[in-house]
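EI: anyone free to look at a 212-residue chain?
SC: sure, send it
EI:
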Amino acid sequence: MTIFSRGIKIERPIIILGMARSGTSIVSSILKEHGIWCGTVRKDRPSNYPTGQHENLRVKRELITRYGRVEDIRKPVRYDQDWINIATDILRKDKYPGGRWFVKHSALYGRLWKDFNPYYICIHRDSEDILNSIERKAGKTIDREFWREIINEHIYEMSDIYRETNAPIVRSANLIEGDYYDLKHAFLYCNLIIDYDKVKKIIQPNIWGVTV
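SC: here you go
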């Protein structure tokens, strides 16, 4: 399915949703390895993201500027009819080439993409593992109750999206262990053909096991 927005023919996007440190970078790296376009992203590969973040910088900047940071809003952002035009302008600036594309970000922004009729993929990771990963990245003790509240909001929102759209849930811990069942289901849901050699190129426990 395609839509036309501001004179651009746009394919139905894949929207990867999850909490920070949940494994969205793993799944986005796998999609990127399969040749799915994601626009302008960070060029460096910081140690916390060994295969890259593949997070569209213009989308991220616009989300934060217009709606606020996740740690500030703490609640899901509801549908905004202006977002389709904002996102289309971003695609134009990024020289969207047509074809399949994906965006990854917090589940709290997921509703904004309604007008694109997206394929959602929800990423799940154990809450304590996320908290431990946030703390490792911060290099200091964090307020766990504060972050647990935000994690729970992500869980609630992704549960709602799952019920409404039957979106697949990918468990990042399973990926690290070499169990690709969830990922295969997600690819089928998005009408993609999975290449396991490309998946294995990304899923390397020695680099993801302690840094995700």
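EI: Residues 143 and 192 are 40 Å apart (CA to CA).
SC: 👍
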